[in-house]
Write a structure and sequence with these properties.
- By secondary structure, the protein is mostly helical.
- The chain has four helices and two strands, in the order αβααβα.
- Helices cover 73% and strands 6% of the residues.
- The longest helix is centred in the last third of the chain and has 34 residues.
Amino acid sequence: DQLAKARSVFRAIDHDKDGDISREELLKDMHGQMDPASYPDDNMHELHLREKDDDADSWFDTYDVDRDGKVTIHEIIHKDEMERKAQEADADEAEKRKREADHFHRH
């Protein structure tokens, strides 16, 4: 289930097990996924590190809802739930417009 997966990923990134993810923990996790030996040169590796830093900043800014410099599992769940509801509302609105258009074209 999605909640169990979120909790598992959260625990893996929360290196100090204090119940929240700092920006540094996130960067450490993202950098740890990159093998420097897989890059043709140091410049490419450095460029990819900067891209990962940008990705981490974006993710962190999205999920640090209360802007306290830490992301908790509750913030992740809350933000994901808000996103899911927004997507459902968008889908419902699109379906409503489709029904209205279909009705209009039939009459």
